[in-house]
Design a protein that fits this description.
This is Gamma-glutamyltransferase. The chain is α+β, with helices and mostly antiparallel strands. The chain has helices spanning 2-9, 20-24, 26-34, 158-171, 176-181, 204-209; strands at residues 69-75, 81-87, 97-98, 101-102, 115-116, 119-120, 138-142, 145-151, 185-187, 191-195, 213-217, 224-229, 232-237.
């Protein structure tokens, strides 16, 4: 449901009047959550109608969103916090190197189709426009102070990887490394993707009994995170990739 809303409404806010407040409105989120309060699968995951105070009719996009991304988190001794995700979008990016750096190919984050049945797509290509991205470098605040820096590579699966870890760490009270290590389960477009060679695969028959399609596959998150407490920093790296915790 979140991906359906994202595909319909989210794009460069300099070009598209995006209903950000409406999408985050607690009443609207509760309405969307109630669609899941059944013992049967959703036959379709359609975008909703969040409240907003300006009109802009859009339709759902068709962005490719390839991976080839990295993430790092840094906290220095002065208390500055950085959570940075960087991508070149495709293997070797645009295949052009300048000054020792490969140039990215972020055009694939746009929808190459501009409209459907005359209704414009919010994330269509336009000159000077920023493409919508799944990158989710996150700094969690508590009492106006940073308490966690986190992010991951992984294309459009990044959103699920970060959400899983935040829920496990904040809501379930798990250790940060344990939260990262939890098996990944994502549902982006109606099929439940279950991380192969993990306990997630045991959920396949349960989802299928509800009527969902499942796919057991490699869900190669690469979460890097640092918790920030008074006089103590704790780093954790996803064992699925080549991440590493370094302290000086």
């Amino acid at each position: 449901l979140a991906f359906a809303d994202r595909g319909r409404y989210m794009a460069d806010s300099d070009y598209v009047p995006m209903p950000t407040k409406g999408l985050l409105d607690p009443d609207y989120i509760q309405q969307r959550a109630q669609l899941l309060a059944t013992n049967k699968r959703l036959t379709t995951a359609e975008p909703g109608l969040p409240p907003w105070d300006h009109a802009s009719i859009q339709t759902t996009d068709e962005a490719i969103e390839l991976p080839s991304t990295t993430h790092f988190a840094i906290v220095d001794r002065q208390g500055n916090v950085v959570s940075m995700t960087s991508t070149i979008e495709n293997s070797f990016g645009s295949r052009l190197m300048v000054g020792g750096f490969l140039l990215n190919n972020e055009l694939t984050d746009f929808s190459f189709r501009s409209q459907i049945d005359g209704v414009p797509i919010a994330n269509r290509i336009e000159p000077g426009k920023r493409p919508r991205s799944s990158m989710a470098p996150t700094i969690v605040m508590h009492n106006n102070q940073p308490v966690l820096a986190i992010g991951s590579p992984g294309g459009s699966q990044i959103i699920g990887y970060i959400a899983k870890t935040l829920v496990a760490y904040i809501d379930w009270g798990m250790d940060l490394q344990q939260a990262i290590n939890l098996p990944n389960i994502n549902n982006r477009f109606g099929t439940f993707e279950l991380e192969q060679h993990t306990a997630a695969t045991a959920w396949a028959p349960k989802f299928e009994q509800l009527g969902y399609k499942t796919a057991v596959k490699d869900l190669n998150s690469g979460i890097q995170a640092i918790t920030i407490a008074p006089k103590q920093l704790t780093g954790a790296a996803d064992p699925r990739r080549e991440g590493k915790v370094i302290a000086q």
